[in-house]
Amino acid sequence: MYHMKGVLIFLFSCLLMFHTKAQNTFIYSGKVYFEKRVNQYQLLDMDNDEIWSELMKKTMPKITVDEFVLSFNKGVSLYEMEKENENNKYIFGMKPSTQNIIWKNLEQNKIEEQKEVFEQQYLLKDSLRKLEWRITGETREIAGFDCKKAVTKICDSVYVVAFYTDQIPVSSGPESFSGLPGLILGLAVPRLYTTWFATKLELLPPNTNISMPKLKGKATNWDGLQKDLLNGMKDWGKSGPKYVWNALL
Q1: Secretion signal: which residues (predicted)?
Q2: What is the pLDDT of residue 23?
Q3: Whose CB among 31, 124, 143, 223 lies 3.0–4.6 Å from 113's, allowing a Cys bridge?
């Protein structure tokens, strides 16, 4: 009786130790696959042209889904489209480009981004965007990881919601977003009716090298790109801002 009780206590202690070790295991290198979803009907309604919107809704899918991958280690991350969805039909100017590539040097606080906006290809080189994140008390599970909610704004008024995990202490995420004490696995920009959520994680060896790609385009920085976009779309009326916000993600 006492022998069996001792065995049970030993097994319970081993299980507790294993659970504690698993909870304290951090991931510093891997690939995260994201699913980007856009509600195009809501974007069409932003234009306040009911006749045109209803016409487009007859030929466009309500939701577009595209897949992206974020490769990362302790020092750098690389974000790019995993594969193009040939079945998607996009609103003018909102199709994601396979030429869009984002390289972040997390140790040096630098970003290099090859971005295609309509027919112009830019090469943005600058510091990582400085965002004023506010961490809330909300949590949710994404791709098997416990995540904490944080919020910020871009372009002065565009609200952004992020969910990051402490279990991957790498300060990066999809698109140009970074600056949180963990990898961003979920992202939402409500005014663009767009979300990014991780679907799976592929582990890589700790010392995996992530090579910087050769990028090209019209040289610019954050301020220059925003100025270019605002100037180019100043006569686009109420539809202009959504293209600017989308290009500055």
Answers
A1: 1-22
A2: 43
A3: 124
Q: Residue 42: enclosing H or E segment and its boundaries?
A: helix 40-45
HEC states along 45-60? HCCCCHHHHHHHHCCC
Would you list the domain boundaries of the chain? Answer: 28-247
Q: Identify any residues that bridge with 142 across adjacent strands, giving them in sequence order.
A: 145
Q: Decide if pLDDT at 192 tops 90.
A: yes
In angstroms, rounded to a whole number, what is the distance separating the alpha carbons of residues 80 and 64? 17
Percent of the chain predicted with pLDDT > 70: 90
Q: Which range is least confidently modeled, 47-51, 90-94, 131-135, 142-146?
A: 47-51
Q: 28-247, which class in CATH?
A: mainly beta
Q: pLDDT value at position 245?
A: 92
Q: Which long-range contacts (CB under 8 A, 24 or more apart) does 116-121 make?
A: 116/217, 117/229, 117/243, 117/247, 118/93, 120/218, 121/216, 121/217, 121/218
Q: Could you read off the pLDDT of 37-52 as tens digits, one per residue? A: 999 999 888 876 788 8
